[in-house]
Amino acid sequence: MTQRQWTQIGEPTNYIPRPYVKYNAVLVPLPPSSTLYQALLGTIKTIGTSVRIISIDEIKNPLLEDTYEAMKKIIARECKGNPNERKLYHGTKGDAINGIVEDGFDDRFFSPTGAWGHGAYFADDPRKSHSFTAANSTNQTHVIFYSKVTLGKESIMNQADNKLTSAPKGFHSVQGTAFSYREYIVYRYAQALPYLKITYTAK
User: Fold this and answer.
1) d(CA 162, CA 178)
2) Is 197 helix (H, G, I), strand (E, B) or coil?
3) Is residue 31 within 8 Å of 11, Cβ to Cβ?
4) DSSP H helical segments within the chain, as ranges?
5) Is the C-alpha dihedral spanning 94, 99, 105, 106 positive or negative?
């Protein structure tokens, strides 16, 4: 697109205002015509043929964003400038949905029963994340968060270790490869940021 002799490079971006002071976060709909929306639409539909996306909302939570960016810089300093940031899926349900929008991935509420211990679990395949969701009793919707995750140095583990409470010494995260889907686990607050909230139905 060329306007006023300016050439647009990359995806158009929308300005998202900071939340009103009494709110921690605002949700802004991602345009269905955007490249990212269409890419996620195709990926989410791998969950099943009956899947229908209701909305994809960008989460604007300035305090969480600032905290995440600070953690990413700390990890980058320990990784020769490359924090190894990935965009990954996280499925959840019930009160945890609003909790993640408001407070992020709070280590006080990390899963204590996961195969790689007490951490926040992510996947690169939404089919894995879907298994951790549940239909809302009112409107039958599910929610998956598309999240920015700073993995840093990953410890690749092909066997489960449910006693972990942190990444092994010298590493910032764990990549679990023992099962059908790869899982990515972080153990510190602010190592992951909820970026998009994907609401969908699946029969």
Assistant:
1) 12
2) strand
3) no
4) 35-44, 62-77, 95-103, 126-130
5) negative
Domains of the chain: 23-113+120-151+189-201 (3.90.228.10)
- pTM, two decimals, is 0.89
| Per-position DSSP letters for 152-192, written without gaps between them | -SEEEESS--TT-SSPPTT-SEEEE-SSSS-EEEE-STTSE
To which residue do tokens 């999240």 refer?
Answer: 147
Tokens for 112, please give them: 């204590």
Residues 6+ apart with CB under 8 A from 161: 115, 116, 117
Output the six-digit token pair for 194: 């909820």
**For 54-104, how does the pLDDT look when each residue is reduced to its tens digit (9 = 90+)?**
999 999 999 999 999 999 999 999 999 999 999 999 999 999 999 999 999
Tokens of 24: 């921690």
How far the first Cα of the chain sits from its last, in Å, is: 40
Q: Report pLDDT digits (tens) over 16-33.
A: 555 555 678 999 999 999
